[in-house]
Every structure is written in structure tokens, then in C-alpha cells.
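Action item from last meeting closed. Structure (442 res):
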């Protein structure tokens, strides 16, 4: 939970506390406060915390202050932070001071941050689920999911469909901070729901991390048991184009174009050279994520399946919007595509140039064709990638070995540790380490 207090956090907890310090106080346990001081020291010197913090202890001024505020009927908000047992601490405060506003950092504030609804911290919080329909957009990276989310938002009841499940959320869920997960999930859905409709975008990279590292699926299933789920799957067949799209977006720091300023920035961006090792690692990551997407489809029979090439690249927006609306079960209002019509394509001639260079280099390194415009599954398997890496290492082709090593590392997710260690690539890695040790005299 302490990761939310860092400068790198996307969820802006510190902004919430700083901007509302006249009406909010953070009540922390000694253990939580100790870690918070450490996080503050890691911040820039010119950005110290200035929000209100009070230590919860068996003595001191805090209980006198709370008693006085309770007697006066204060509308101040108190956020309770206790790493070891937030639920019990929160319950005790609410029982002792029923007229004061207490919020749990995990149960109430965290969901508001994820929902991008900071104001809900200060409003009454419903105790029952307000959503009757949930639209889940499952997509691989660089597949047009932002346009699809805009369309769902335009036609699907007005809910804001964004990518909620990201690094900050995963960090909190794996932090060991003890809070009421079911309450937090219900609050998150309620804070994100408009007129009974909830929506979210789930990108396979973060979703795979959640599914493999978390133990919260039972709680999720229990909270949304009575919600009608509409799942939409979106993938991209041309893995080379997808790889280059992600590669360029990362290099430019420009992932979407929704304004003239961003379009000008795209046009003026410097040309990029191809770092094949980096790009091919991304290629195999996207291959793995596409497989993960397919594995999820059996959970949602009858889901709407879309393709970047068939539905997104040159879309008939009204027709696509009508199709999405029918599936969700809503009637799209006339002229409802304002958000989706503002989104522009980010690909240009540089994408084609680097895609050609990538394909050529892929053939040279692996001896086969990558998955291109046809979407044919003729890409290198993990075993093929290992063998090519071993061959390159044996023949001293340093550049090819480096690229193949990165590809092997990305592809190894499909093999067991034992298979990797016993295979030719594992032997080549060990041989390379021994050679480096001999050269260094160790």
C-alpha cells in the first residue's frame, strides 16, 4: 500500500491528500507510519508531504481530538491506515465515533483512486452493488483497445471504460496490507458505475500477472455473482505490426493520438532505428499474451470477438458501434460517437519501414517467417527459438546470439525450468558463462 505514496504512482493518492488537507486526516498505526517516513525520504527534496497525519496509539491527543470532533458534529474525513488489520481498526473507530466519517485506506480510498473518482471518498458510500451490467474488454497490447473502449463508453450507458488493472493495483494486492477485499471491490465497481453499467479494459499483460499471482478470484466471483457480464475480446493477427507499434510507442513515449498537439508531436518525432533484440522480445511477449487471451475465451461462451484487422484498422464506426450496442444490450443514442471519433491512428510510414526491417532480420536469425499480415501461425516456437539461439552461440554469431537470447527469454514462458535447463539453449548459456569466467580469470 505504501507504493501509492511514491512519486511514480499513477493513482495520485498524495494529490488527493494534499489537495484536501483542510478536510482529511490520515490516521496511521505505528508500523505503517514508520514505512511512510521511509517512502517520504525517497521523494524529491522539494516535494515533502504536507497532508495531515496522526498516529493511532493508546495514549496521546488523537482520541481527545476525535471525541471533540464527534461532539461538535464535524464533517472532517479520517482515513484509517493499518497494515496489519485495517478492518478491525476501522470497525472500532466507527463504533466509538458513529457521527464521524471514517474511511479505510484499502477498503474505500484505494477503490476511489482506481476508479479515478476521488470525490467519492467524501460522499456516502453504498453498501450494496449498484451495477447490473459489466462490460469487460479483454485485449492484447496495441490492438485498438482504446478505440473499442471509447465506443463502449459512447454507446454503453455512459460508463467510463478505462484500464483500471495496472501496476499500482497489482502492487497493492501483493503488498500484504490487510483490508476488506470484498468491500473494496464493491466500492470500486460502484464508484465506476453509471446508471447501472460498469465497464473496464483488461490488457493481457497485467491480467496475466493478476491471474497467476493473486488469490482473490473467489472474492471477485462472489461480489459480481448477480451482475450480467458482457465480454468483448480483441486481438491483432499481424504480430509484426503489433510488435513495431508497441516498440515505437515505447521509444517515442506516445501511446495514443487524440488531439492535434499529439498528432503534431507524432509527425515531428525523430526516426527510430530497429533494436532487434528488444523488438523480438516484445514479439514473443505478444505471442504469449495472445495465447492467454484465447485461454480466457472459454470462460465467456458467446462473447463478442473482434479483430484489429477486420474491425478496427479502418472502422465503419456507426456499424461497429451498433454491433457493440446490440451485444451489450443498449440502444445507442444518435450522434453518440463523439469520444471514439476523436481518436486518431498513430501508425505512419515509419511503422512499415521498421516492420520490413524486423521481418528481414527475423528470417536471418530464426530461418522462418514471423507472424505477419496473414496472421498465419508460422512463428518460432519456444523450442525453435532455443535451438536457433544455441546454433548462433556455437558459431560465434554474437549479434544473432544476443537477439536470439532475448527471444528465448521471452519464449521460455511456454516451457518448464527442467526443459530449459536440459535443452540446447540451457547448455549454450552455461557454456557462455564458463567462457566469460575463463576470459576474466575467475
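Sequence:
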Amino acid at each position: 500500500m505504501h507504493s501509492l505514496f511514491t512519486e511514480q504512482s499513477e493513482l495520485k493518492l498524495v494529490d488527493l491528500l494534499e489537495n484536501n488537507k483542510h478536510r482529511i486526516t490520515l490516521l496511521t498505526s505505528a508500523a505503517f507510519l514508520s514505512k511512510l517516513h521511509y517512502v517520504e525520504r525517497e521523494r524529491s527534496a522539494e516535494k515533502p508531504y504536507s497532508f495531515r497525519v496522526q498516529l493511532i496509539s493508546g495514549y496521546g491527543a488523537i482520541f481527545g481530538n476525535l471525541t471533540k470532533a464527534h461532539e461538535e458534529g464535524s464533517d472532517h474525513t479520517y482515513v484509517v491506515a493499518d497494515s496489519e488489520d485495517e478492518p478491525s481498526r476501522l470497525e472500532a473507530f466507527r463504533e466509538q465515533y458513529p457521527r464521524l466519517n471514517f474511511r479505510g485506506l484499502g477498503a474505500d480510498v484505494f477503490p476511489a483512486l482506481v476508479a479515478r473518482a476521488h470525490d467519492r471518498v467524501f460522499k456516502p458510500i453504498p453498501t450494496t452493488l449498484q451495477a447490473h451490467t459489466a462490460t469487460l474488454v479483454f485485449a492484447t497490447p496495441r490492438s485498438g483497445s482504446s478505440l473499442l473502449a471509447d465506443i463502449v463508453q459512447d454507446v454503453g450507458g455512459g460508463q467510463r471504460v478505462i484500464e483500471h488493472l495496472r501496476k499500482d493495483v497489482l502492487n497493492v494486492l501483493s503488498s500484504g496490507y490487510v483490508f476488506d477485499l470484498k468491500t473494496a471491490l464493491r466500492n470500486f465497481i460502484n464508484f465506476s458505475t453509471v446508471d447501472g453499467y460498469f465497464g473496464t479494459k483488461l490488457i493481457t499483460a497485467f491480467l496475466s500477472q493478476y491471474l497467476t499471482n493473486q488469490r482473490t478470484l473467489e472474492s471477485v466471483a462472489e461480489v459480481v455473482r448477480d451482475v450480467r457480464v458482457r465480454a468483448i475480446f480483441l486481438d491483432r493477427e499481424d504480430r509484426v505490426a503489433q510488435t513495431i507499434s508497441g516498440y515505437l510507442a515505447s521509444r517515442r513515449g506516445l501511446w495514443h493520438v487524440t488531439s492535434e498537439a499529439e498528432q503534431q508531436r507524432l509527425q515531428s518525432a525523430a526516426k527510430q532505428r530497429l533494436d532487434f533484440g528488444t523488438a523480438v522480445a516484445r514479439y514473443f511477449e505478444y505471442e504469449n499474451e495472445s495465447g492467454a487471451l484465447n485461454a480466457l475465451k472459454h470462460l465467456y461462451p458467446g462473447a463478442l470477438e473482434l479483430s484489429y484487422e477486420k474491425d478496427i484498422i479502418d472502422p465503419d464506426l456507426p456499424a461497429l458501434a451498433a454491433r457493440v450496442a446490440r451485444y451489450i444490450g443498449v440502444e445507442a443514442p444518435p450522434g453518440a460517437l463523439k469520444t471514439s471519433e476523436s481518436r486518431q491512428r498513430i501508425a505512419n510510414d515509419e511503422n512499415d519501414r521498421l516492420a520490413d526491417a524486423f521481418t528481414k532480420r527475423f528470417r536471418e536469425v530464426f530461418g522462418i517467417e514471423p507472424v505477419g499480415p496473414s496472421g498465419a501461425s508460422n512463428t518460432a516456437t519456444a523450442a525453435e527459438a532455443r535451438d536457433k539461439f544455441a546454433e548462433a552461440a556455437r558459431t560465434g554469431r554474437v549479434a544473432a546470439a544476443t537477439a536470439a537470447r532475448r527471444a528465448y527469454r521471452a519464449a521460455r514462458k511456454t516451457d518448464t525450468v527442467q526443459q530449459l535447463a536440459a535443452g540446447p539453449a540451457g547448455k549454450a548459456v552455461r557454456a557462455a558463462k564458463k567462457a566469460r569466467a575463463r576470459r576474466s580469470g575467475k
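Note appended to the action item: Residues 133-237+278-341 form a domain with the Rossmann fold fold (CATH 3.40.50).
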